[in-house]
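Below is a typical protein record.
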Amino acid sequence: LIADQTVTIAVQVNGKLRSTINVVINSPVDELKKIAVDAISDKIDRKDVLAILEKEQENGLLVGIIVQIGGQTPLKLAKVLNERGFKILGTSFDSIDLAEDRMRFKDLALRLNLKQPENSICHSVEEAFSCIEKVEFPLLVRPSYVLGGQSMSIKYNIESFKEYVLNQTKIFEHGPLLIDRFLVNAVEVDVDAVCDGENVFIAAIMEHIEEAGIHSGDSTCSMPTNTLDNEIIKEIKSQTTKIARALRVIGLMNIQFAVQENNIYVLEVNLRASRTIPFISKVINIPVAKLATQVAVFPFTRFPGADILLGPEMKSTGEVMGIDSSFEAALAKAHMAAGYKLPMEGAALISVKDDDKESILPIAQMLNKLGFEIYATKGTALYLNNNSIVAKAVNKVREGRPHIVDMLKDGKINLVINTSKGIKSVPDSKDIRRTAILQNIAYSTTTSGSKALVLAIQYIKN
């Protein structure tokens, strides 16, 4: 099962076999059209795949099936393919199941002396309320068998958790609810590697710019890493090799780690090609001294009701890459390639949750030095002024006019930094984020992303 973004692998396979069957979901490209594409559909289900394979088996042409390419969907078909006796090429089904099954992988991690966040598995609403006694808040909650982080959420207290579970009762129809302790202020790291069962080639270690908790498909990432020290990198390589060998991987794999105060946690292991493979393929063919930065591309202007606040549920629909000899330069290129208009002067709005007020200070200082005038909602303005950064207070929408959305619409704000948390705060600030998008104003919804954005502006301006 080969997706359209992995044409290279399709071509490679086709050169060694008589023909290949590529089940492609969405927009087949010209190169794939040349390689005997026998089934193309917007919605491919299990019955369609089995029908194709059984027909090929009848003709005596079926050598095996590749499930490592094309995202999570082919991996989820691996069980039924194995039960029907089809040969899975590369990593075995047992290894795939070991990585996908929460309890089996937890046992493996303990045997390998690897750390994971505290976690629990719940099969009912009643069990969910019991499970949270075993795991500390904040919690990352996610249903089983979802794509793109759908319905995943971070819950900071018992009230928001109860509301989530009671409103999402259907999630238990498709499998258990997975609960993890959310690692606050952790750095997320993606590793892509190839293994032949024993030898492991680590193609890339990428550091996410946004903190852990932002879906990997939405996060900006840097290769090589930007803040991790050599000892952490060395240990990540060691753990990647351990996991690949223990799972007897033959082919591609992706591991997501989180680094918190020099502790390395294994978040997820995917025995397949990740969405970063095309990005890495370009980067590793350039001089080692160069840096590449990947930025997610969001379609928010096409979906007027969507909120741009990032979290564990994926929202982006594409990505771009910037390559240069410095992190800041690569970042600036990536932002420009994504179509973001970076302001060189004017006014910046800062409105952040209490947890982010301390970390926003150096960013506000950078904006001051760059000559930006700073506006802020009342709580943030008070904090900034108390810390020697001049900020003019403005009203939130519910506080009456003139308010911040009026200023955005009138073209008086050139940059928006807005982080939010809580049942009341998130919807209150949604109008700020939506207006920024509709007015094509540069924005960020995380402090780490804000720092990267300001560094890019600083690089261009200087």
